[in-house]
Amino acid sequence: AMKLLNVAGFFALVPTLVSALEPITTSLAFCGAAVMWQLFSPASWLKCRFLECCNMKDTLDIPALQMALEQKVFGQHLATQVVLKALSAHSRDKQPRKPLVMSFHGWTGTGKTFVSKIIARNLYQRHEARRRFVHQYDAVLHFPHAEHIKQYKKQLQNWIRGNVSICPRSLFIFSEMDQMPHGLIDSIMPYLSHREAINGVYYGKAIFLFLNNAGGDKIIEVALDHWRRQKGREEIPLTDLQSMLSAEIFNNRNSGFWKSKLIQNNLVDYFIPFLPLEYKHVKECIQEELRYQGHQEDEDLIIKIALAMSDYPSEDRIYSSKGCKTVASKVNLAT
Fold first, then answer.
1. Residues pairing with 210 in the sheet
2. 333: exposed, middle or buried (C-beta count within 10 Å: 0-12, 13-18, 19+)?
């Protein structure tokens, strides 16, 4: 109410201030006042259009997200399908019962970090907004000492509570989960539960992504089994993989989710498998990187780079252990 009175009082004074001015000047004064008010208003559409602003939209740009996933992510039909459906459903809900929680699993270089960046760019197009409302935590960088776990728990709770109170549609990305000190991630359990609000802060619009190498070997076993039985990777059943991942990381001491209450209480909505990449997928990554850097998509060059970077650890020599992790640097060297 006080804010409305202040606005009314401000505009009531404008005619007095500009009564001696010409009509054009008066119009400019009114326009300038309106612009200034919009820029200083916390949730103004003008501020959100040109400056950083918390994304209070009820929907993401789902078509743009789908296009980015289809055009830039290779060999991950299971992951992209689940991510798209999960984000679509969560964004359509005007008052979600809980935050969206997704756990990405797979070998390094399969696209876990890349997909998280696509989500962040879709949610906040402007760099300044991403800097303020997308929060990335690296277990090795931010939580390096297991003996400091009590301090880390308080820090993590304060970070999440403070950031969500500023922007309900905050995105939290936890990478290197397999390096997370045991028990630390359970400290955020209250914020992921089905609740209206905690001390006046509503967490339902927030999104949490956990990036984890744990479970990657199990995913490869399933993929190899299908390949040996001459079945396409498109035939790999998602439900089997998700159930397997849930059990695997719960019982794996090096997953960050070992005996975690988040899993016991079913607070992770989706366990998303990132399949190992084949030679053809590595070639597609190289082609996309050449296009991104403005080079010609020369097939001989693509093959040369792909052969130079492929490392196949199993006797079947079908999957690359590095995936697309080093594609950008290899393209730089070859062009």
1. 103, 174
2. exposed
- The model's pLDDT over 258-296, given as tens digits with 9 standing for 90+, comes to 999 999 999 999 999 999 999 899 999 999 999 999 998
Rounded Cα distance between 89 and 81, Å, is 12
Which two tokens mark 153? 């728990």
What is the DSSP secondary-structure string of 214-247?
TTHHHHHHHHHHHHHTT--GGGS-HHHHHHHHHH
Q: Is the dihedral of CA 306, 312, 318, 319 positive or negative?
A: negative
Residue 52 contacts residue 126 (beta carbons within 8 Å): yes
- Residue 71 burial (CB count, 10 A): 9
Cα–Cα distance measured from residue 192 to residue 176, given in angstroms and rounded to the nearest whole number = 20
User: pTM here?
Assistant: 0.83
Rounded to an integer, what distance in angstroms lies between the CA atom of residue 111 and that of residue 114?
5
Res. 306 pLDDT band, cuts 50 70 90: confident
Beta strands (DSSP E) in 126-269 are: 134-138, 171-175, 207-212
Contacts of 82 by beta carbon, 8 Å cutoff, 6+ apart:
102, 238, 270, 272
Instruction: Enumerate the known binding-site residues.
Output: 106-113
The Cα 277–Cα 102 span in angstroms is 21
The phi and psi torsions of 176 (rounded to 5 degrees) equal 55, 45
**Annotated binding-site positions for ATP:** 106-113
Complete domains list, the chain, with CATH? 2-50 (no CATH), 62-275 (3.40.50.300), 278-334 (no CATH)
